[in-house]
Amino acid sequence: MVGIVLVSHTPKIAEGTWELIRQMTGEKIILEIAAGTRDRRLGTDPVLIEEKIRKADTGDGVVVIVDLGSSIMSTEIAIESLEEPERSRAAIADAPFVEGAIAAAMEASFGKSMQDVKNAAENTRGMKKIA
Amino acid sequence: MSTDAAGLVKILEAVADKINENREFLTELDSAIGDADHGINMSKGFSAVLEKLHSQEFGDCGAILKTVGMTLVSTVGGASGPLYGTAFMRAGQAVAGKSSLNFDDFIAIMDQALEGIKYRGKAQRGEKTIIDSLEPAVEILKNEKDSTDRKSVMNKALNAAKEGVEYTRSIIAKKGRASYLGERSIGHQDPGATSCYLMLQAAIQKIKEMSG
Questions:
Q1: Do A76 and B35 touch (CB under 8 A)?
Q2: Fewest beta carbons within 10 Å, which of B24, B62, B63, B174?
Q3: Could you give the domains of chain B?
Q4: Share of chain B above pLDDT 70, in %
Q5: What is the pLDDT of residue A27?
């Protein structure tokens, strides 16, 4: 199963999103959180993100959902630090955090491929909230 | 004008001291148009850098810069961590294996630092970022690399960086948290451009001191 890593500036963002996801998928997906710095400041930590990507990777790849700013650059550094083949099967989804995370988690729970999971997250970008 | 690994550590200590001295100032600038953490984050990062530099003996200048970069990446927390971290790691690659550095190496270090920041941040000049102070300085260093009056070249480069900082007051932020302010970011100088200028100022001052 494709793993999901949620990267946010504070654990509250990622943990709240994980609560929403769990309502729909239960515990049956692989999801890791890399949020905040080790000394509990707001921010992101590339080393922590790299650890979580490794943990979420069971061989089918990992899609990372990021909030903003440093979370993107920190995740890029984390992915660059991985060795092959792990590096090629980790990717950032260019997607809104909550919607992207939920779409990715659903797709992953269906046993879809990493590309499908990434696409599902990115397809939420244009979703209209008001009809 | 050349330095060995111990001299490079001295230059980096001066840079770290400068950041620590300006911790409140940088955070103040960042609270006007960002997330009010630039000084705190940079100071955290450079305090960790000092610890790392003092915990081991170095002979390879490239390894020193790489260590600085990796330490910043893993301790800063904000966007300046990946940006300055990548800058120092790239700079380290430029002088990998060298036990002493000359003026050409200094220029290569600055050039690769700029390339690293551009690669990581995908920004260009005029977007109210580190690049607005760093790139003008690097341009002067590269254009005047054959000049025999190196002190004057460094002074000119530093002056260009300072003008770059001033220029950031007049433009709209296109990157980072400040970009959410749109036009309201005009009138404020960019914290990243400022920290870059301060670091360059400390490094150049130390280099001049060391070369007598």
A1: no
A2: B24
A3: 2-210 (1.25.40.340)
A4: 100
A5: 86
CATH topology of domain A3-123: Rossmann fold (3.40.50)
Cα–Cα dist B199/B17, whole Å: 9
Q: Is the pLDDT of residue B191 over 90?
A: yes
- For testing contact with chain A, the best of B44, B74, B89 (most A CBs within 10 A): B74
Q: Which residue of A has its CA nearest to B86?
A: A77
- What is the SS3 assignment for A54? helix
pLDDT for residue A131: 81
Task: Using alpha carbons, list the distances in angstroms from residue A26 to A3, A21, A40.
Answer: 15, 8, 28
Q: Could you tell me the two tokens for B40?
A: 């705190």
Greater confidence, A26 or A94? A94
**Residue among A39, A41, A69 whose CB faces B176 most closely:** A69
Q: What percent of chain A has pLDDT over 90?
A: 94
